[in-house]
Amino acid sequence: MLRAEGLKHRFGAVRALDDVSFSVQPGQTLAVFGPNGAGKTTLLKVLAGLIQPQRGRAHVEGGRRVIGWIGHQPQLYGQLTVRENLRFWASLYDVSPPGDLLARLGLDDHADRPVRALSRGLVQRVAIARALVHDPTVLLLDEPFTGLDRVAAEALRRLLGDVMKQGGASVLVTHNVEEGTELATDVAFMLVEFRSRTGILSAAVFVVLVLMVFNFGRDPTAVSNVVLVPSILWVTFTFAAILALNRAFQLELENQALDGLLLAPIGRGSIYLGKLVANLLFVATVEVIGVPLVALFFNVEVWSHIGPLGGIIALATIGFVAIGTLFSAMTVRTRFAELLLPAVLLPFMILPLAWATLATTSVFAGRPLSEMAGWLKMLAGYDMVFVVLSLLLFPATVNE
Q1: Lower Cβ count inside 10 Å, N or C end of the chain?
Q2: How far is 126 from 132, CA to CA, in rounded Å?
Q3: Predicted pLDDT at 14
C-alpha cells in the first residue's frame, strides 16, 4: 500500500534522507524512531507528496485521497467551530463526516466551539478527527499522541486499530519507543549519528592528533618502528574506542527511550547485541582510518601483513567492545559517566591489549603465524567468555 525506493533529499548541506527504502503492506504499522533532525518529518512529507524528493520515489496505492495526515500543526481553521471544520475537510473529499467520530474522540461537548478557544489537547483531538474524516486507508502520523490525555490516547489507539483491522497501513513517527513498539508491526531507526558523521569525525580527528603527537615526539634512533608502532597503534585504538563507548547509550537517554526499549516485548539480550554490533561498526570505522595513517606516519609496511593484522585487530576489538558495551549501559545513568566508564573498563582491557600488542609486534617483525597462535587463541577465548557473560549480565545491569 505504501512504498519508498531510494529516497534522497537535502536541505543545503544537510542530508535529511539518505537512500531510504521500505514498503508497508495492508495491516502493517511502521514505527520510525530517531532524535530531532533525523529526517522523520521530511520522510512523511515525501510520502504524502508535500515534498518532491531529489532522488528516488514514493508511491501510495490510491494516491492522496487515501492518505490521513496528523502532523505537528493541526491544519484547522481557528475561526470555525469543530463541526464546521470537519464538514469543510470532509467536503474536500466529497464525503460526509462519520456520525460517531466526534463521540469516539470525546468532542461532542465541544462540537460548536471555535477551534481557537480549545485547549492544546482538544485541538489535537480535532486534528485527529480531521485526519480520519474521509476514512483513509494510509495513515501518516507525526507524533500523534502529543498533548493527549490518557482517555484521548486510548481512543486514538482504538481508531488506529480499526483502520489496521480493515486492511489499512500506517507510518508512525514518534520519540516514544514504548508507544511506537506497542502499535508497530515493523520498526525503523533514523539515526543522526552516522548521517552527520559527527561521532566518526571527532574520533577520526582524535586518532590523527594522537598519531601526530607520537610521530613528532619519538626519537627514531632510540627505538625501531617495528617495536614502537604496535604499542602506539593499540593506545590510539583504545582511547578512540572509549570515546565511542561513552556515546553508546546517549541517544537512548533522549525522552527515556531506554526505558521504552526495556518495556517493549523484546528480549533484553537483543538490545545488548544490537548495541554491540553498532559499537563494533563504529570502532571498526575508526580502525580502518587509523591503520593507513600508522603506515604513513611511521613508515612501516602494513599492506603485506594486512590479513594477520586485520584478524588481530578484530579479535581484540570484539573483546573490549563487548565488555565496554555492558559497562556503558551500567554507567550511562550516573552523573559522572564519562569519568566512570574508563575507570571500570581499563582493568578489563589490560589482558586483550597486551596479547594484541604482542601479536602485532610479531606481525610487523615478519615472524611466522605459528609464533602468535597462542596470543590469538587467548584473544578468541577472551571474546567468547566476555560476550557470553555480558549477554547474561546485561538484563540485570540496566535495572535501576
Answers
A1: C
A2: 10
A3: 80
